[in-house]
Design a protein that fits this description.
The protein is 49% helix and 0% strand. The longest helix is centred in the first third of the chain and has 17 residues, at 9-25. It is globular and about 35 Å long. It has helices spanning 9-25, 29-36, 40-47, 58-67, 72-76. The chain contains 5 helices and no strands. The mean pLDDT is 87. The chain has 97 residues and is an all-alpha fold. The two termini are 15 Å apart.
Length: 97
């Protein structure tokens, strides 16, 4: 189903923000991956907002906060007041059967 995504809208926003932070700092993919201690391919997966790639880990977010000197509030952006908002929900595929 095309409406089933691997990532929540929040994750997609943060992934896009991570990419923008790297580009604004002037780092190439190679430089950015070395700073984060991941491979270039892993950084591509981290930064992609398409329906593939890897999920974000707390340790990675902490490194990004330190390296790019950005607060978690800045990284997460404006969040909905309702914790049950679809913004926080990752839609999951259901098995047919």
């Amino acid at each position: 189903m095309s409406d089933q995504l691997k990532f929540s809208p929040l994750s997609i926003h943060v992934k896009e923000r991570i990419r923008r932070l790297r580009l604004d700092a002037g780092y190439s993919m190679t430089e950015g991956s070395k700073l984060l201690g991941v491979s270039r391919k892993q950084l591509e997966d981290i930064e992609t907002s398409r329906d593939y790639g890897c999920h974000l880990e707390l340790e990675l977010l902490a490194k990004i906060r330190v390296i790019y000197k950005v607060s978690l509030d800045e990284l997460l952006g404006n969040l909905p007041a309702d914790a049950q908002s679809d913004y926080f929900i990752r839609k999951r595929r259901r098995n047919a059967g």
